[in-house]
Amino acid sequence: MDGTEPDTFVGAVPGRYWHALDDGRVQCDLCPRDCRLHEGQRGLCFVRARENGRIVLTTWGRSSGFCIDPIEKKPLNHFLPGTPVLSFGTAGCNLTCKFCQNWDISKSREFDTLAHTASPEMIARAAEKTGCRSVAFTYNDPTIFLEYAVDVAAACRERGIKTVAVTAGYIREEPRVEFYRAMDAANVDLKAFTAGFYKSLCSAELESVLETLIYLKHETDVWFEITNLVIPGHNDGDSEFEEMTNWIVDNLGPDVPVHFSAFHPDWKMMDTPATPPATLHRAREIALKNGVRYAYTGNVHDSRGGSTYCHGCGETLIGRDWYELSTWKLAADGSCANCRTRCAGVFDAQPGTWGRKRVPIRMGSAPVSRASA
Q1: 307-353 pLDDT per residue, tens
Q2: Contact 271, 285 (CB under 8 A)
């Protein structure tokens, strides 16, 4: 695609990562699943298919919907706080998480889910007109619609709009380079810290996700944060929190924010109870003890666990009540106004004022009121 749009901006476009096998099949090389397909077959993600002897992305230009969210909802607490982000996804996923909380989109096999259409330029223009500082690829994993996401990112950069990937980080080495070269920020789901969890609940491999995190930290300038969805009885043990947060500090450093988020019963795990807030508080305390400077609780009302503190003097730098910012004590250069210790992140001199609003929009309709950013 190289950033250009096809004559009609909806439908199948050539995939960039695949190769032919000796047995007549073709292998998709986008993610570690290595789906091997006969003519007419689709990969596990459902949206990448074999047509005319090659892999195509079948959902270029198609979306399950567009909405303006607070950036903190991605969640990103250290990337342009308080600003609005134009969010959208497509359909399908390359993981099979039994606890998926967006299953109606990520597990969809019905193209009626993709009722909205938009070219990259339309999306970039809509973000600009509505005052969004960034566009987020979210709701389902953008890895599987890499060609569309990269084209949207290129159009956004031409207008000074940032792009955000909300992803599980399950991607091969070569496409990883192209994908993250197009991104300004990411939130990566580190779903657990055991290979058994990934295999039994996601049909995936932990090691591939860890490789993505190391790549992001040491080979890119992408600002990224980590989310760990804490599921009772599966990944909520103190020993796992200890091992995971020690690994993060040792391999990624102390400045990568970590969000411990509450699970609620969904998809194929309706009999699993919701995460008690006390478990999230315990995980956060373990992370802080082990040197993670910015540890947060999510999906629960917890102003203390949602706020940002100076690791130098303990001052509250950014107070949060859900997605509303209550305190701002960062200097213009992103340092603590009290002791001048630098707070890691991407900050404006002043925060945005978007708050907790969630505003659905339709491409081609009259734009909503310009956001205060």
Answers
A1: 999 999 999 999 999 999 999 999 999 999 999 999 999 999 999 99
A2: no
Q: Which residue has the tokens 């009772």?
A: 232
pLDDT, tens only, 263-316 = 999 778 899 999 999 999 999 999 999 999 999 999 999 999 999 999 999 999
Contact predicate 74/85, CB 8 Å:
yes
Please state, in angstroms and rounded to a whole number, the distance separating the CA atoms of residues 23 and 279. 50
Cβ contact 74:368 at 8 Å: no
264: tokens are: 């609620």
Closest to 295 measured CA to CA, from 260, 337, 322, 321: 260
- The CATH number of 64-102+117-302, from 3.40.630.10, 3.20.20.70, 3.40.50.980, 3.90.79.10, is 3.20.20.70
CB 89 within 8 A of CB 108: no
Integer Cα distance of 26 and 19 in angstroms? 6
Nearest to 194 by CA among 234, 148, 233, 231: 234
Give 24's DSSP letter.
S
Cβ atoms of 33 and 326 within 8 Å: the answer is no
